[in-house]
Amino acid sequence: MSTEAEASAGSGGAIEPTNVQTSSEVTASGASDLPAPGEGSDGGGELAPLNSGRIVDVIADALTFMLVIARLGIAAAAMRLLSQAVKGAYSYVEDCAQTVDGLADVAASLAVDDSVTSSHHDAAATMRESLELADALSAEAAEMSTEFDNAARDHASDYGDVNEAMQSGTADVAEREWYSNR
């Protein structure tokens, strides 16, 4: 039985190294082309700091700016669509109320019990009451749409120049860490 097989059997199947060279043994073996610890491949010893983190921050800020504008625009469009949908439902409910009133009048002319016809008129009145709420909802959604549009416009006017300056790279700004505790 070989020593490798014995070693693997005794260590639960893992192969253990039997010979590890020290750094002096590596140097003595002629592998001196490896850089010493702390030396770079250019021989300068130290690497110049990179500003890649700052570039990523500028790109992230620009994306955040654009996303805020886009999300405000999407919210405004959604509120406009909601307002229009409520107005469509409003028209449908108004038509239903008129139809129920008309049917109640026809039923009354056919001598149907007054409790039935009055129940139909009550139902039509309830539909019309809900129209007041729907009208208020539609108006509120339209107002919110306008407010989202205004917020997007104001955000662009307040921070658009800052965003452009950051993207052009002409502005010298403080590091993010300076603002972190403010």
Characterise this structure.
There is one protein chain. This protein is mostly helical. Helix content is 72%, strand content 0%. It contains 5 helices and no strands. The chain has helices spanning 3-10, 23-28, 52-109, 114-168, 176-179. Helix 3 (52-109) runs antiparallel to helix 4 (114-168).
Task: Provide the descriptors you would attach to this structure in a database record.
mainly alpha, 5 helices, elongated, 72% helix, 182 residues
Summarize the structure.
The chain is built from 5 helices and no strands. By secondary structure, the chain is mainly α.
Task: Point out poorly predicted stretches.
Answer: 1-9
Report the portion of residues in β strands: under 5%
Q: What about the largest sheet?
A: none
DSSP helical segment count? 5
Judged by helices, strands and strand pairing, the structural class is mainly alpha
Computed over alpha carbons, the radius of gyration is 39 Å
| Straight-line distance between termini | 71 Å
Order of helices and strands: HHHHH
Q: Helix fraction?
A: over 70%
Helices and strands in order, then pairings?
Layout: H1 3-10, H2 23-28, H3 52-109, H4 114-168, H5 176-179
Helix pairs in contact: 3-4
